[in-house]
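stage 2 :: seqdesign
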């Protein structure tokens, strides 16, 4: 019996057809075995997590944990941390910034864009349905094999579906979903950044206002001393040099007051932009009193990695990069697309929609580039390079998170001691000024001693205020470094100096 499978004009047998289909698949599998393996992320980006912050006192130990996925930023309880400062004006400004700040609006727009790309990626995994209609003039349109040009009209529906046998579409969708999660985390990080900037700018503005009051009090005291010295000069008790000295102190203090007014204007303008308003029409809420200084428990370092939205975004970016490595690797495998169409076709447009003109068809297309000059290999290498970049960025973000917490904890520790020492200096300087003023009015000390006492008191009071402001700034910085929350522990309020 003759084997017709090898005859040039023979119809292929079913076994031969199966072999012809399996050939490209086998070649794809062989090529896929030569692909670069993706980089596996290390737990916590390879950074050893300490048991406690070195500047935060003794904390509970962190239990060992494997590589875990940080919860989505939107699911993290941030809390209204600014309420810990017990300042209604600050709370109002933070609320205004949350709805009108342009940085937050931009981050929200980027999140919306990422989510639209996710919907587009998911749509590529579903059945595609389209309608088509057209008129074609070509040879053989009326009769097969005829060289006479004829017109052919078509109208119908087209259906296509790509089989996701090797995970190309699913991994593309996963990468888009992870990108959206990262954008959500960055939105939360932007909100936290804006809230912290509003709080720090507001507290610095209030400190500048208080410092201006101190300078104005000193200015009034210098002016009083100037009037007294001028009267004593007229009486012949002091020389003109004494008057000139006091006039110098008055002018220098007036200059300091003007510098503080300039600083206030700049801080108010910055605060206006943060809350999304025009600086010229910005109205600062009236303060109800001095803001409280909350004491924030730092917790353990391990909680920072799961709480900070920027760390969560960096980790999500790593997983998205991993998914895109898989997408690049699937280019070595064949793509299989199923298509179908149904409609009408006729050389006479008047007969196009008759029942006799109906037509339909189904097909399956398998495509596999055999030689592309190294394009697919380059794409895999590029995806792996971007993954390595994401891993390095994640590690950098983890290290930065730990550094920021340690910086703020160290600042608060030393600022606490500095505030105590500066408080003692203010008390002593105030007493020295009182004694010097009384003795000067009685003619027991020179004018130089009185001026030195006043300068010392003003300097120490301003330094005490600056230390207090630094404590506010470091506290807000610590809250930001902790991810905008401090867990279940409630903050305590430090006593005012």
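stage 2 :: out
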């Amino acid at each position: 019996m003759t084997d017709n499978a090898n005859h040039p004009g023979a119809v292929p047998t079913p076994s031969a057809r199966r072999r012809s289909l399996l050939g490209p698949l086998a070649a794809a599998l062989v090529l896929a075995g030569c692909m670069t393996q993706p980089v596996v992320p290390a737990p916590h980006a390879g950074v050893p997590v300490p048991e406690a912050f070195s500047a935060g006192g003794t904390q509970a130990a962190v239990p060992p944990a494997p590589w875990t996925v940080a919860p989505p930023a939107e699911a993290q309880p941030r809390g209204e941390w600014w309420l810990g400062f017990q300042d209604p004006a600050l709370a109002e400004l933070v609320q205004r910034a949350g709805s009108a700040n342009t940085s937050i609006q931009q981050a929200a727009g980027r999140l919306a864009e990422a989510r639209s790309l996710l919907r587009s990626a998911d749509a590529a995994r579903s059945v595609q349905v389209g309608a088509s209609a057209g008129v074609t003039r070509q040879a053989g349109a009326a009769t097969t094999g005829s060289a006479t040009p004829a017109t052919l009209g078509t109208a119908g529906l087209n259906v296509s579906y790509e089989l996701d046998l090797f995970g190309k579409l699913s991994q593309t969708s996963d990468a888009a979903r992870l990108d959206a999660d990262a954008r959500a985390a960055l939105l939360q990080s932007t909100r936290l950044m804006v809230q912290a900037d509003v709080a720090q700018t507001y507290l610095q503005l209030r400190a500048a206002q208080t410092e201006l009051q101190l300078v104005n009090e000193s200015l009034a005291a210098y002016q009083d001393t100037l009037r007294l010295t001028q009267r004593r000069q007229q009486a012949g008790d002091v020389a003109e040099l004494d008057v000139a000295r006091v006039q110098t102190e008055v002018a220098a203090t007036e200059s300091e007051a003007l510098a503080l007014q300039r600083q206030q204007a700049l801080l108010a303008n910055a605060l206006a932009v943060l809350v999304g308003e025009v600086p010229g029409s910005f109205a600062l809420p009236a303060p109800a009193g001095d803001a409280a200084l909350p004491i924030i428990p730092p917790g353990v370092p391990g909680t920072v990695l799961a709480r900070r939205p920027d760390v969560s975004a960096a980790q999500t970016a790593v997983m998205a990069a991993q998914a895109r490595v898989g997408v690049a690797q699937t280019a070595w495998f064949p793509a299989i697309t199923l298509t179908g169409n149904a409609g009408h076709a006729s050389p006479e447009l008047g007969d196009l929609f008759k029942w006799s003109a109906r037509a339909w068809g189904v097909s399956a297309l398998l495509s596999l580039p055999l030689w592309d000059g190294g394009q697919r290999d380059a794409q895999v290498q590029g995806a792996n390079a971007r993954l390595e970049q994401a891993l390095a960025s994640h590690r950098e973000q983890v290290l930065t998170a730990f550094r920021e917490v340690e910086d703020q904890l160290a600042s608060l520790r030393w600022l606490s001691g500095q505030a105590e020492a500066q408080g003692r200096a203010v008390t002593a300087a105030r007493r020295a000024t009182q004694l010097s003023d009384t003795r000067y009015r009685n003619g027991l000390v020179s004018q130089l001693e009185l001026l030195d006492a006043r300068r010392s008191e003003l300097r120490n009071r301003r330094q005490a205020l600056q230390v207090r402001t630094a404590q506010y700034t470091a506290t807000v910085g610590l809250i930001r470094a902790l991810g905008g929350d401090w867990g279940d522990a409630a903050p305590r309020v430090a006593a005012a100096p």
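stage 3 :: structure notes
- The chain is about 60% helix and 10% strand.
- Confidence is low (pLDDT under 50) at residues 1-12, 57-77.
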